Protein: Probable M18 family aminopeptidase 2
Organism: Stutzerimonas kirkiae
Amino acid sequence: MQATLNQGLIDYLGASPSPFHATASLAQRLRSGGYERLDERESWQLQAGGRYYVTRNDSSIIAFQLGTQPMSEQGIRLVGAHTDSPCLRVKPHPDLHSQGFWQLGVEVYGGALLAPWFDRDLSLAGRLTYSRDGHIESQLIDFRQAIATIPNLAIHLNREANQGWAINAQKELPPILAQVASQDASDFRALLAEQLSREHDLVADVVLDFELGFYDTQPASQIGLNGEFIAGARLDNLLSCYAGLQALLAATPEQSCMLVCTDHEEVGSSSCCGADGPFLEQVLRRILPEEDALQRTINRSLLISADNAHAVHPNYPEKHDGNHGPKINAGPVIKVNSNQRYATSSETAGFFRHLCLTEEVPVQSFVTRSDMGCGSTIGPITASRIGVRTVDIGLPTFAMHSIRELAGSQDLAHLVKVLTAFYRSAELP
C-alpha cells in the first residue's frame, strides 16, 4: 500500500503544475471513483447516499458524500487543504528584451524561497482565456518541456554570493526564453496561441488573458539511500490534497464526508474561491437549506485542516522548540498555537490523537519557538467563517516553499490511514 500511495502522489504532482491542473486532476480521479459533477449555475438534485463534487474558478474543489445517517445528528467529517503553491507568475505584459535575449517579467506568488529557482529547467502552465468564433473560452495549458531558465551570475562576478545577498525580484528573476535577432521576433501571446493549437487543436481569434506560472520540470521522485524521502515540487500542499482524496474515496457510506481543497492560501485565502471566501458556506447551505438543520450539523461537525508541518532540520535544530521538533517519517503532526494561528483546541487535538492511537499511527506535536513568528493555515480562517471545530495537522517536511521540497516516504500512508478512519468514525467529540 505504501509504495502504491507514494507512486500515486508522484503521478499526481506531475499532473498538477498549477492549481488549475491540481483541481482538474482531483476532479478526474473523483469521477473515476463514482463522484458526480455539480454546476453552481444549475439547480442541484441531491440524493441521500450520493457522491458529488463542485469546482469554482477551476482552481478550488469541494467533494462530498451524503451519508445514510442524518447530518443534523451525526455532523459532517471535513478535511481541508489547498491547491496553490508559491511560484513565479507571468505578468500581463511580460515581454522583455535585453542583450539579444527574450525574457518574461514575473511576479512572485506567495512566500517563495527564491534562491532555488536559479539554474532550473523551467516550464509554464496554467489557464488561458481567449475568444473563438465570437465566444470567450478558457483552457488549461502546459508546455511540459523545459522552455526557460534563470541563470545565476557567476561567482567571479559576484564574490559575495556565498555570503548571502538580497534577490531583487524585479531585476533578477525574469526567466530567459530564447535568443532573438530583434524584438519583433518575440510575442508571448502568439506563443500562447501556438501552444493552444498544439495542445488542444484550438485556434484562438485573440488571446485575451492568462494566469500562468513557471515550474521545475524535474519530476518528483523517491530518494535516499533506503528510499526514505519523497522529493518534489508543490508538496505543500498537494500532499494533503492527495491524502484527503485517497481517504475520501475509501469512505464508507454511513457518514457524511467532505474534502475541501481551495486556492489562494499562500496569499491569504481572500478570494471567491479561497478559504476566506464564501465557497464552502454556500455549498453547505445548498446541501442544508434549512437554517436550523445547518447550524445543528455544523456544531456536530469537525474539520481536519491538513497542511505541511516544519520537520526539525539536522543542520538547524535550534530553529525548533526543544520539546516540539517533528521528525520525518514519524507520523502526522498536531499543530498548536495559543494565538490562534492554528485552530487546534485541546478537544480537537485529543480526538485526533485518540484516532491515531486507535489506528496505531504515530503522532507528533508542533509549537513554534516562543521567540519566533508562526505561520497560519486555512484552519483558523474556516473555523471563524463557518464556526466548525478544527484541528490543524500536517506531515513534516523540509524546504517548505522551495521549488523542491522533501517529505518522508512512510508518512503519506500514515496520513491516509488516519484520515480514512476519520471519515469512517461513528462518533465525533
